[in-house]
């Protein structure tokens, strides 16, 4: 954590301890209070429900509360196949969310179109909106979903609200 920045307006131009520590505290609070908006379109929704059940218990990570208005949500979970017809709706939902906001591509279809490589399916939601974390699988197992959530928490803590990016499978494939 950088502490050598001068604070404009301080008499001695000393290090900005208060500002940087406050950022860390705010990010810590953010990562444990991620209200989510589930945009569920297909079969991956069954696994999304399972991580919210008692066995996997997503609430342990402070992310159990779904908000069914994007204006109150921090994280957009895109769960399942997105076709071109519904793509404008997804974009509108994203635009309605207040900053800071994050997006998780849940499963192969949301990440890359999955096996629906045809005229109707969007080949990855990052063609429409920015994505922070991609979760692989068709569908992903609950453990992978929780792993994705922990990765998002790490990014929120370490990198703050903006400029965070997960691993893009398309880049890994050299596309
Ligand atoms: S990734 Fe597989 S399980 Fe998930 S929505 Fe696509 S086809 Fe269904």
Could you say which small molecules are bound to this protein?
iron/sulfur cluster
| Portion in beta strands | 5-15%
Largest sheet: 4 strands, parallel
Structural class of the helices, strands and pairings?
A: alpha/beta
Tell me what the CATH architecture is.
3-Layer(aba) Sandwich
Number of helices: 6
CATH topology: Rossmann fold
Structure description:
This protein is an alpha/beta fold and 175 residues long. The chain has a single domain (34-172), classed as Rossmann fold. Helices cover 34% and strands 10% of the residues. It contains six helices and four strands, in the order αβαβαβαβαα. It has helices at residues 17-31, 45-51, 87-96, 107-112, 142-159, 169-172, and strands at 36-40, 75-79, 102-106, 133-135. A four-stranded parallel beta sheet has the order 1-2-3-4. Helix 4 (107-112) links the parallel strand 3 (102-106) and strand 4 (133-135). Helix 1 (17-31) packs antiparallel against helix 5 (142-159) and helix 2 (45-51) packs across helix 5 (142-159). The longest helix has 18 residues, at 142-159. It is globular, with a radius of gyration of 18 Å. Residues 1-7 and 163-169 have low confidence and may be disordered. Residues 42-44, 80-81, 107-109, 114, 138-139 line the site of iron/sulfur cluster.
């Amino acid at each position: 954590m950088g502490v050598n920045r001068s604070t404009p307006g301080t008499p001695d131009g000393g290090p900005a301890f208060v500002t940087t520590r406050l950022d860390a505290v705010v990010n810590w609070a953010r990562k444990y209070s991620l209200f989510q908006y589930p945009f569920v379109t297909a079969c991956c929704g069954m696994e999304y429900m399972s991580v919210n059940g008692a066995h996997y218990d997503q609430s342990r990570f402070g992310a159990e509360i779904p908000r069914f208005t994007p204006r109150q949500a921090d994280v957009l979970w895109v769960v399942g196949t997105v076709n071109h017809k519904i793509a404008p709706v997804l974009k509108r939902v994203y635009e309605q969310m207040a900053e800071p906001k994050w997006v998780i591509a849940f499963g192969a279809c949301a990440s890359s179109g999955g096996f629906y490589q045809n005229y109707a399916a969007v080949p990855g939601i990052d063609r429409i909106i920015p994505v922070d974390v991609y979760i692989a699988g068709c569908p992903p197992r609950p453990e992978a979903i929780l792993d994705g959530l922990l990765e998002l928490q790490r990014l929120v803590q370490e990198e703050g609200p903006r400029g965070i990016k997960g691993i893009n499978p398309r880049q890994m494939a050299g596309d």
